Amino acid sequence: MVLSKRRPVLSYMFPPLVLLFLLLAVSVAFFSFRNFRQLIFKEQYHRLKTAGELLLAALPFENGELEAKAKEITRKIGPASPFRVTFIKPNGFVFADSHEDPLVMENHAHRVEIRQAIRGEASFSLRKSPTLAISMLYYAFPIDDASGKVIAVLRLSLPEANVKKLLAAAALSITIITALLLGLAVAAMVAVSRKITVPLAAISKSASAYARFDFSQPIHVDGPAEIVTTADALQKMAQALTSRIDEVTRQKQELEAVLTGMNEAVIVLDRNLVITEINPAAARLVSSSYDPVIGKSLIQVMRNTELNTFAQEALVARGVRQCSLVIPGEAKEIHLQVNASTIEAVTADKNSRYPQQRLILVMNDITTLKQLERMRKEFVANVSHELKTPITSIKGFVETLLDGAIDDRENAFRFLTIVQNQTTRLGNIIDDLLTLSRLEQNDEESGIGMEIIPLCHPVNEAISICQGRADEKSIDIHVECDRELEILGNGHLIEQAVVNLVDNAVKYCPEGSVVLVRCEREEDRRILLEVQDNGPGIPEADQERIFERFYRVEKARSRDMGGTGLGLAIVKHIMLLHGGTVALESSRGEGASFLLRFPALPS
User: Fold this and answer.
1) DSSP letter string over 398-462?
2) How much is the pTM?
3) Secondary structure (DSSP) of 45-96
4) Within 13 A of 156's CA, how many CA atoms are on the CB side?
5) What would you report as the CA-atom Rg of the chain, rounded to the nearest whole angstrom?
6) For residue 505, which phi and psi values (nearest 5 degrees)?
7) Which of 420-434, 452-466, 491-505 has the lowest mean pLDDT?
8) Tens-place pLDDT, residues 321-336
9) Do 592 and 540 meet the contact criterion of CB atoms below 8 Å apart?
């Protein structure tokens, strides 16, 4: 749409109003001048008539006396008089005149006012005088004798120039007054228009600011009631908009805070499955930031046809739908539980508002739950297997003894020794499980107290416990620990962790090996406790799961050596309880190093 050039209100009002005022002024001036002209002429004719009637009253009725009297009167009046007095006989000859010699004057019988006066009627006329060659106003009176016969005509006249001077002065006055009135009207119009345009300009300025969502400019106008009412309405609208925008902003911030704090990934799609909104959890899921993702299609970002098909079906079916799927990740597969729901969002353009369908995908990453479920199943299976093996062995040998082997002293003693070993193994498994349970609960009733202790004390106690088994394999346990290194911890638990690590090292190292136990302070003031051996090492594929319950690299060999499969899991939970970490550095065939790091003491 092509917009016409914008003009101020005054440009619309000024020309027509000025034209209207001008027409009114000219009309008033014209009719005033015409009426004044008529009034002037009427006044002049009245003067002539009055003067003529006065002269008639002073004239005699006898013809002989009339001529003498007329000549006397015209001589006294003379050329200096504003009136010209002329006496004419019925035959048209002039016998007395105040301005000219009657002898040189032509016959006046054909003058219109003379002819009518000779007929006995007073008359007036406006015409050019042949004698004076100027326009004159004439008034002619018949002079009757005693019998009523017209014996002469008395004519009085005035130059029209005298009247024109009066008319010119009147016209000048009328023009000046008209111009002043026109000027006052224009000034009044400008003043009135400013009463309208100034508040309208203030309203326009504030409205423009409101269009930019700047509601800080209040509207203060003074003018007509309609404009003040409009300004008040606009001010109230701005206040309502401010309140509404604040509310919407607050709701948006709350929604953004909720979406940002959600662990669930939220993606909003339009009807073409193009991403319009995404929260940080979803951005992390697709390993991207907001900007490159918004505006792209779901299949481009997720690259999963199953998810794209599910979204299309949910968009068509509407309502709420749910599915579970697996998408490939950078390191491992990601298990997702996807909930889809449709909403009708209102979209606005320049001309209208219309509803548009949106699809919201809420995706829960259940990979950890799946892993925990797998670990739970494996734990239950491992516990069942670990407990079943000694119980089965105990049951079998007990049944053998009951069947009569108890009478065979040699076999009975061997069977009972096996039962005792299996019972001890079963007890160790139960003790380790209880220890793990106690460490995981970590409550006040567990009896786990923390204090500042020298690290070398629990380390030396653990070495003394493991020394006997090490001597059996001629393994040297070498300790490097500064007595000044102190940690905040539980000595018994740290001793148990070191026992588990050293016992594993002694168990898997060949005879004549060296196990190194080293303690030192690192650059970040944390305390490092390292247990290093030169055993077979741990393959990289098993290192991630080595701290899981009952996980063994070589299951058959581990069971033969009498392990429960819970030692490293206990070490991990002891370090978690102390706020530290446990790490493994190992390669197959090159030994293993277990690194325990304790937090630095507060300054």
Assistant:
1) HHHHHTTGGGSHHHHHHHHHHHHHHHHHHHHHHHHHHHHHHHHH--GGGT---EEEETHHHHHHH
2) 0.44
3) HHHHHHHHHHHHHHS-SSHHHHHHHHHHHHHHH-TTSSSEEEEE-TTS-EEE
4) 21
5) 65
6) -65, -45
7) 420-434
8) 888 888 776 667 788 8
9) no
| CA–CA separation, 337 and 319 (whole Å) | 17
Of 113-127, 253-267, 312-326, 469-483, minimum mean pLDDT range? 253-267
DSSP string covering 153-171, please?
EEEEEEEHHHHHHHHHHHH
Tokens of 54: 């006065």
Q: What is the largest CA-CA distance in the chain?
A: 209
Identify residue 93 by its one-letter amino acid code.
F
User: What span, in angstroms and rounded, lies between the C-alpha atoms of 165 and 159?
Assistant: 11
Q: Which residues is 454 bridged to in the sheet?
A: 486
Q: What DSSP string describes 221-288?
A: --S-HHHHHHHHHHHHHHHHHHHHHHHHHHHHHHHHHHHHH-SSEEEEE-TT-BEEEE-HHHHHHTT-
Residue 196's SS3 state is helix
At 601 the three-state DSSP class reads: coil
User: Cα separation of 265 and 378, whole Å?
Assistant: 29
- In sequence order, what are the beta bridge partners of 91? none
Q: DSSP code of 24? A: H
Pairs from 367-376 (Cβ < 8 Å, separation ≥ 24): 367/332, 367/333, 367/334, 367/335, 369/335, 370/335, 375/548, 375/549
In the three-class reduction of DSSP (H, G, I as helix; E, B as strand; rest coil), residue 303 is classed as: coil
Structural contact between residues 276 and 291, judged by C-beta atoms closer than 8 angstroms: no
